[in-house]
Amino acid sequence: MTNVLRPHGHQRTPLPPESRASPLTPSRDAAAPQPGGSPTPPGGNSAVKKRDPFFDNAKYLAIVLVAIGHAWQPLTADSRIAEALYIFVYAFHMPAFIVISGYFSRSFDMRTDRLQRLITGVAVPYIVFETAYSYFKRYADDDPGYPISLLDPWYLTWFLIALFIWRLTTPLWKIVRWPVPLALSVAVLASVSPDIGDDLDLQRVLQFLPFFVVGLVLKPEHFQLVRRREVRILSVPVFAAALLFAYWVTPRMATSWFYHRDSVQELTAPWWTGLVMTPALFGCSMVLVACFYAWVPRREMWFTALGAGTLYGYLLHGFLAKGSRFWDWYDAGWLHTVWGAVALTVLAAAVVTVLCSRPVQRVFRFVMEPKMEWAFRRDAAELARGRAEKKAPAPTAGDGGTAARG
């Protein structure tokens, strides 16, 4: 169900310290100033600072892995190789996405404009797509009784409600002394608590929480570290070992462990298993996330601009992913061959690429990034500045001349 400039040598341009954008933030943020961008020009006007291509590349590649994982899922029932690849991808694609979410949430506080953006950029898309997905399931799956509930996220919308909750708790994680161990402890407790229930998909919210908190505590130099040549070289045997382990573990371990949506009791394991498996899965995922980041291109690529539209690709491809099951597209025998799996992989990557493109963004921008000025009161400080500007006398020619001479 869950479901993502490079000079030679070690002298590399440092990553920007932070940005206020979300990893799922649409193209409206593409022109937003970011620390580490272009300097102010001599004329004194601030230049529009450029987005860092590394993060856009990482977001695009992560969302492609999400779509590919969804395309592979129906193949896992009769192919051990497909299931191994599926487990391998699911071990790190959402954690990689969530770590970037945390990194770009470091500046979040309860300031009015940031709360407004949290509502328009996360809460509103959640409400719209949770409703749209519910109606889609009713009619596409011939399930007219399926309830529409904003408290029970269905399919992909869990990430939006999780991001909303994580962002609201950001000030807490910024003041505690050991945020990552504390978040991991919360995840462990959640994994052994079967009574949490399905409201707001809190199991997944809490079990994925440590990855978000890791992003909050990361600094630019940490991303610089994984871009070192030796880390890239080391990541190759690590990925290979992870693939072999995934192949070995497929008959022995349910893929549901990697969804993080159930307690260990619901996975028919003894309660104490959560004390071991949750930290172990977290550690394995973080190693694979580091290996993934090590191979993300640092320079501008043909797909870099698509990283600004990952919210579109993430939410829209879900209709096709679920529709393919509802309409029995996988009943075609050729899809369960090697060439069929390759074709599905290419098709999934191509579809989500199109859904991240600018034309699609223009069509769905009213849903993904509504302005909604009408819904918010103007900030008191902003109103005060406006009144002060109206009361200030207009400068005279003599004043201008005096200022120029001064």
CA-to-CA gap between the ends?
Answer: 67 Å
Q: Low-confidence segments, ≥5 residues, pLDDT <50?
A: 1-23, 25-48, 396-406
Order of helices and strands: HHHHHHHHHHHHHHHHH
| C-alpha geometry | globular
**Derived structural class:** mainly alpha
Strand content: under 5%
Organism: Streptomyces xinghaiensis
Keywords: Membrane, Transmembrane, Transmembrane helix
Transmembrane segments: 54-72, 84-105, 117-136, 148-166, 231-249, 269-295, 302-321, 333-356
GO molecular function, one term: acyltransferase activity, transferring groups other than amino-acyl groups
Map the helices and strands.
Elements: H1 53-72, H2 80-90, H3 93-103, H4 112-140, H5 158-168, H6 170-175, H7 179-191, H8 202-207, H9 209-217, H10 220-226, H11 229-249, H12 273-294, H13 310-326, H14 338-355, H15 358-368, H16 380-391, H17 397-405
What report would you give on this structure?
The chain has 406 residues and is an all-alpha fold. It has one domain. It contains 17 helices and no strands. The N terminus and C terminus are likely disordered. This is Acyltransferase 3 domain-containing protein. Pfam families: Acyl_transf_3. One of its GO terms (molecular function) is acyltransferase activity, transferring groups other than amino-acyl groups. Keywords: Membrane, Transmembrane, Transmembrane helix. InterPro entries: Acyl_transf_3_dom, Nod_factor_acetyltransferase.
